[in-house]
Design a protein that fits this description.
By secondary structure, the protein is mainly beta. It has 7 helices and 32 strands.
Length: 636
């Protein structure tokens, strides 16, 4: 049974808040008479005019977004010395990730207590969740090509379809817009032979801009049976056809070979090998000053082998191979007139999974959808009604309405509220999957949710930015396992049914300060109360509360340092023997040196899990202990 952490959440929060209060009172002239540079620091936390696209799939100011949305920038990713999407999501309030090994290991994100299968992960509009069980493997997604990540917490089905728990939308770096070549090369090395080598170039030749990046991530294993060898390459080409039309092509390739833990008592070792290839071709046309038209086609192919070996000899005991393909077509029109930004679109995708564990060896699904939303701004108010209709040939249809509203109390304070209905499609594993003692149900319905959210962001207190959000999600027809007994009372088999009902409610509080003595403070707390409404019992395995605290130092002369503490109370059953009694503290350092002709050299280093703390759900997948890495980054 887990006890509360000895270096726990309350103490950490008290320290941060006490320091913030003391610094504000001790340095009133500094805190309330910020320089323009310091004010810009807070604008990085909250810029009401910043344009985001994920909420309605069209650019709109963040001050008009009614949903709980977090944006992570490329600069923030760089400051984390992040290797994969996992490292980034680990630091986002309201998002929980269980580290199942070192960089590149398979991990899945949870949002506000919603299961991983309810979270949609996209890059360039391409869905990266697999077809078998909707698993979004954050550990296989590199970060070098990311310009920003927009995270909608809570149902996003009115814009994206199957996204009951939220959307993690990756916006990639743009192709070059000026003549000449810009680029970067970097390399890092850490304990257990852990290395991350990267390079990127961008530029423009005539009407064609380009961006190319490649990465190799390797590790001998930060935990037992945790070897990783991942290679990634990404390309974007943009052709300015004319002054009002452009054509964009993207191509990404991810290749990985990973050990996924070992069972020494049973003498077993688990591995997976994957290859993911995806591409898009899109046309954007500006039809006058008020209309934009976007057309795009996308394709994804994922091949994966799940391997079971005898640990002592390396002999192959079992292999499960799967190949999935998705081909999609999207069309979207955006109309901006007066206070309106209206978006109308249609999505279609054809999906196919070929796998040994699928009955008949393969399964197919066609999906199409129509959606419409409008952002109506009038003075301090912005109203966003939206509606989407999804149809599948396997799980029926679904209607996803939403209504959001924002109110600008002042230029520094925004109030938000929204109500939305969302859904999540079951994976092929539940509907047509096979396996020992398992019987699938091809007639499973989609999981459903009604969601209610309120929130506030404010910068009214000069040196402090604060964000508060509350949520109430009611999930019905949730997937649940049912055991079928024989006449003798012994179990015959199990299946998956739509009988689950849950209520997820809670809140997030996030605060950040302007720099005082070149150092800013950050703290965030998330609370989730998950209840089975059939039994009125707490749902175990849903993170109950999460803390994120830290300090960030920037001398504005090239030296940066970030100390971050992260804690999750996973609320696992005692029988799982999880150990999550400690904060995990990381420190990241960067020193940038300027050279001639806009060239820079940066030295960086990280010490992760400084105090060698434990933060895992089950002993089979422990988190890495303390480990150190350092590297060089050269930009030109």
């Amino acid at each position: 049974m887990n006890s509360r952490p000895h270096n726990g959440a309350g103490l950490a929060a008290a320290v941060v808040l006490t320091l913030a209060s003391s610094w504000m009172s001790a340095f009133p002239d500094v805190a309330y008479g910020q320089s323009e540079e310091e004010l810009q620091t807070l604008l990085m936390f909250y810029d009401p005019d910043e344009l985001v696209i994920t909420a309605t799939r069209s650019r709109k100011p963040i001050s008009q977004v009614a949903e709980d949305l977090t944006v992570v920038t490329a600069e923030e990713i760089r400051q984390l010395n992040a290797h994969t999407l996992t490292d980034v999501l680990w630091t986002v309030p309201g998002v929980q990730v269980d580290l199942k090994g070192g960089p590149g290991s398979p991990t899945f994100p949870l949002i506000q207590g919603a299961d991983y299968r309810h979270v949609l992960v996209t890059v360039d509009g391409v869905t990266l969740n697999n077809l078998s069980d909707n698993f979004p493997d954050a550990g296989s997604i590199p970060v070098q090509n990311i310009e920003r990540i927009e995270i909608v917490k809570g149902p996003a089905s009115s814009a994206w379809g199957s996204a009951l728990g939220g959307v993690i939308n990756i916006v990639t770096k743009d192709a070059g817009t000026t003549a000449g070549v810009n680029g970067m090369v970097s390399g890092s090395y850490g304990e257990f032979d852990t290395s991350d080598m990267r390079g990127e170039i961008s530029g423009k030749e005539g009407p064609v801009g380009y961006y190319v990046t490649a990465e190799s991530l390797r590790s001998h294993g930060l935990t037992p049976g945790n070897m990783v060898s991942n290679q990634d390459i990404y390309t974007k080409l943009r052709w300015e056809v004319c002054s009002h039309a452009r054509l964009t092509f993207t191509l990404g390739h991810h290749d990985g070979d990973r050990d996924n833990g070992e069972d020494r008592l049973a003498d077993l070792a688990f591995q997976d090998e994957y290859e993911r290839l995806f591409g898009t071709l899109s046309l954007n046309v500006a039809l006058g000053k008020e209309w934009d038209l976007d057309l795009s086609v996308a394709s994804l192919r994922l091949e994966q082998d799940q391997l079971l070996r005898q640990r002592s000899t390396g002999s192959l005991l079992d292999s499960q191979t799967s190949t999935e393909t998705t081909h999609g077509l999207d069309a979207k029109a955006t109309w901006r007139h007066g206070g309106h930004t209206m978006v109308a679109g249609a999505d279609f995708s054809a999906q196919k999974l070929e796998a040994q564990r699928i009955l008949g060896g393969e399964a197919e699904r066609d999906r199409w959808a129509l959606y419409l939303n409008d952002t109506i701004s009038a003075g301090r108010w912005a109203l966003t009604p939206g509606l989407r209709y999804d149809e599948t040939d396997t799980n029926g249809d679904f209607l996803s309405p939403t209504l959001g509203v924002t109110y600008s109390v002042s230029k520094k304070t925004i109030l938000r509220a929204s109500v939305a209905r969302g859904f999540s499609l079951p994976g092929f594993s539940e509907t047509v999957g096979g396996g020992p003692f398992f019987v699938p149900d091809p007639d499973l319905d989609v999981e459903k949710v009604w969601s209610y959210q309120v929130g506030m962001e404010s910068q009214e207190i000069g040196p402090l930015w604060i964000k508060v959000a509350g949520f109430h999600h009611r999930v019905t027809d949730a997937l649940a396992q049912r055991e079928v007994l024989g006449e003798d009372g012994l179990p015959l088999y199990f299946t998956i049914v739509n009988t689950g009902k849950q209520r997820l409610r809670g809140f997030e509080i996030e605060a950040k300060t302007v720099p005082v003595l070149k150092t800013s403070l950050r703290a965030a707390y998330t609370f989730v109360d998950a209840e089975d409404t059939r039994t009125d019992e707490t749902v175990l395995g849903v993170p109950r509360y999460t803390w994120d605290v830290g300090l960030h130092f920037d001398d504005r002369k090239g030296l940066q340092a970030a100390l971050k503490g992260h804690y999750v109370w996973w609320n696992e059953p005692a029988a799982d023997m999880g150990d999550y009694n400690s904060f995990i503290w990381d420190i990241h350092l960067q020193k940038r040196f300027s050279a001639a002709e806009a060239r820079t050299l940066e030295l960086y280093a990280s010490v992760r899990n400084i105090f060698d703390g434990s933060q895992y759900q089950i002993p089979f997948y422990p988190n890495p202990g303390r480990w150190v890495e350092a590297g060089l980054r050269f930009e030109f």
